[in-house]
Write a structure and sequence with these properties.
Blueprint (H helix, E strand, L loop, with lengths): L7 E4 L12 E2 L9 E4 L5 E5 L2 E5 L5 E5 L3 E9 L2 E8 L5 E7 L4 E4 L10 E8 L5 E7 L3 E8 L2 E9 L4 E7 L4 E6 L3 E6 L8 E6 L10 E7 L2 E6 L4 E8 L2 E4 L3 E2 L10 E4 L3 E6 L2 E6 L13 E3 L3 E2 L10 E7 L8 E6 L3 E5 L5 E5 L4 E12 L2 E10 L4 E7 L5 E8 L5 E7 L6 E7 L3 E10 L2 E11 L4 E7 L4 E6 L3 E6 L9 E5 L8 E7 L10 E6 L4 E6 L6 E7 L16 E4 L11 E6 L10 E6 H8 L3
Parallel strand pairs: 1-24, 27-48
Antiparallel strand pairs: 2-26, 3-4, 4-5, 5-6, 7-8, 8-9, 9-10, 11-12, 12-13, 13-14, 15-16, 16-17, 17-18, 19-20, 20-21, 21-22, 21-23, 25-26, 28-51, 29-30, 30-31, 31-32, 33-34, 34-35, 35-36, 37-38, 38-39, 39-40, 41-42, 42-43, 43-44, 45-46, 46-47, 47-48, 49-50, 50-51
């Protein structure tokens, strides 16, 4: 078996550009190390044939873990460091905490033994400060795991380039960088929610400047450093304005053996290992660290059972309140199956296989035909109809009517309960057309009467009616949120409430209104799904529509629940549903089910958590 000589570099941010400088040998105790990591206070963490070793700044060995290992990566948190490496024989990832002040290495609960041969591994610390581990196999199989306390949970499976021997994550930019040995370097979204994307960072000749493909890499503020496949040049690539730009390469010229390399971070130096041992060179770098704008992150309290259909299935929820708050129901549409009903624990209680339903809304205690009824209305995409459902006192849903709309591509809808009584439905088409219907009841027969039609310029979907103020809020997916009168007799113009921009990223999707029980009509909040960045905007539901904040839904690891992403529909209630939902509940469609991967579902969020995070009254 050939012994691979590794080359390691530690890179940091200074102003200026890369400059060649005389090489200086590192301390003798590092010379046997195959991988290095500088620690706070000047100490070192080394990985060699004897195992993981901890040295203080004077070179005194403080602790060691005897193990054949490879693939070291670290994350620093004050004077404590998280290190993860792979046990060479089993390839099991082994996490260790490094207590720099005490000088101790403490083994943590290991990850499970991988089901594939691991070629590369790297750490990631997300916006919730949770530690993730990426594992990449020779054939492109890959997994993302998350750890908290003793928990080690599989987040998702990925398909990454084959022959990937190196990876690193830029935590600030939430970017996974993968080095494909015979091709180049690729960038991926490190966050697990959403479909993600791939970008080319640097490619081998003749497609790019890398000679012999890509070797090891290291994250730089606002860019990346990568050794070419021959380990002869260090290539620097900046990321600015969404573009990757190659900077002048720096010759290594240390007689590093072909195919051997490993890069990491240190203050002001690039560390290289050649035939003559470790050497350090000054490095100057002009890039600036990238960060994704921070928003509040809220953990969900519960989730529904997954859809019975794969792919883009779940779409829009609606909340029905029972006389006993514990018996409330969540109605959710499945665009490939029909209407589903769930309890407050997320258990499915009913399925109505009525075809491809898109949006659904609920109104209760409606005075119709001399009696009070609870109704759900949904858009049916198979025949472009409006479907009605009754809901009895036990929360049981039953089909009650289907009415043609004459629309060509029916899409979204919402209900409106006027102060004068009855109930009305706004139904829209992908071409921007809105129909407003009045729903009637004679005996046991429902009817739908068209009251008016209007149109927006481009595709809409989500809408919500503010019953107390007779206002309609509607979303034009690529433009923003509009408002107009919900009264069909008033020919009111559309007024822009919140345009796509800093607070709202297209597509504009689901929306709902939160108003405290007994709250004044000039109070309340409008919640809007900002699908493009998987966030949710909260703004006043009355002029001047002040934005109160944005939030995302993240992991609840103890409960085994992932966050939400690319949300279509949502709904909210201010009713006291007990426990965590004393101030109400927000129900959100999740476009990508993780922890682990699975069909789409809906997440339950406590409104009290939203109010606390955003400082709402």
């Amino acid at each position: 078996m050939k012994k691979t000589v590794l080359c390691s570099a530690l890179l940091a941010c200074l102003s200026g550009i890369v400059q060649a400088a005389p090489a200086n040998a590192l301390p003798s105790f590092t010379q046997e190390a195959e991988e290095l990591a500088r620690l706070p206070g000047g100490g070192w963490l080394t990985l060699d044939k004897h195992g993981l070793r901890l040295f203080d700044a004077q070179g005194q060995e403080q602790d060691r873990i005897a193990v054949r290992a490879k693939q070291l990566d670290t994350r620093i948190d004050g004077n404590r460091v998280l290190a993860v490496f792979l046990e060479a024989d089993t390839q099991r990832p082994l996490p260790v905490t490094v207590d720099v002040q005490v000088g101790k290495l403490v083994m943590l609960t290991p990850f499970p033994v991988p089901t594939f041969s691991v070629e590369a591994s790297c750490l990631y610390r997300d916006a919730q400060q949770l530690a993730h581990l990426f594992l990449i196999g020779k054939d492109g199989q890959a997994e993302q795991w998350v750890m908290q306390g003793e928990q080690r949970q599989l987040v998702r499976k990925l398909v990454l380039p084959p022959h990937a021997k190196h990876c690193r994550v830029d935590d600030g930019a939430r970017r996974l960088l993968v080095s494909e040995a015979n091709m180049g370097v690729w960038a991926y979204d490190a966050d697990s929610e959403g479909m993600g994307k791939r970008e080319v960072v640097a490619l081998r000749k003749p497609y790019g400047q890398l000679d012999g493909g890509a070797g090891a890499l290291a994250v730089l503020p606002g860019g990346v450093a990568v050794l070419d496949g021959k380990a002869e040049k260090l290539h620097l690539v900046t990321h600015q304005g969404g573009q990757w730009t190659a900077q002048p390469a720096q010759a290594v010229a240390l007689n590093v053996r072909k195919g051997a390399s490993q890069l990491a971070m240190d203050a002001g130096s690039v560390l290289l290992r050649g035939k003559n041992g470790w050497q350090a060179r000054p490095l100057k770098w002009s890039g600036k660290a990238e960060t994704v704008p921070e928003v509040a992150i809220i953990a969900p309290q519960a989730q529904t059972a997954p859809m019975a259909r794969q792919g883009d299935a779940a779409d829009d929820p609606a909340i029905w309140l029972a006389s006993d708050p514990a018996n409330a129901r969540i109605l959710g549409t499945n665009k490939k199956q029909g209407l589903l009903v769930y309890d407050l624990q997320g258990k499915q209680t009913q399925l109505l296989e009525v075809g491809r339903l898109n949006n659904v809304d609920v109104r209760q205690h409606i005075q119709l035909g001399g009696s009070k009824v609870d109704l759900a209305v949904a858009t049916q995409r198979d025949d472009n109809s409006m479907m009605l459902f009754t809901i009895n006192a036990s929360g049981e849903v039953a089909e009650a009517g289907r009415f043609p709309t004459g629309l060509k591509s029916i899409y979204g809808m919402c209900l409106y309960q006027p102060a004068s009584g009855g109930v009305q439905a706004f139904i829209n088409d992908k071409d921007g057309t809105f129909h407003q219907y009045s729903i009637g009841l004679s005996g046991k027969q429902f009817s739908a009467t068209l009251l008016r039609s209007f149109k927006v310029a481009t595709q809409p979907e989500g809408c919500v009616a503010d019953d107390a103020n007779a206002r309609l809020f509607l979303g034009e997916e690529t433009r923003g949120v509009w408002t107009t009168s919900a009264d069909a007799a008033k020919q009111d113009t559309l007024t822009m409430v919140l345009p796509v921009g800093a607070n709202l990223t297209a597509d504009v999707e689901g929306m709902a209104i939160y108003r405290k029980p007994g709250g004044k009509a000039d109070s309340g909040y409008l919640i809007v799904s900002s699908q493009g960045d998987s966030s949710y905007v909260v703004l006043d539901a009355q002029a001047p529509y002040k934005v109160r904040g944005r939030f995302k839904v993240g992991f609840n690891l103890p409960a085994g629940i992932d966050g939400t992403s690319e949300t279509d529909g949502l709904d909210v209630t201010s009713a006291n549903l007990g426990g965590a939902y004393a101030q109400g509940m927000l129900v959100i469609q999740d476009g990508y089910k993780r922890l682990p991967d699975g069909p789409q579902n809906f997440k339950y969020v406590a409104w009290g958590d939203v109010a606390k995070a955003l400082g709402l009254e």
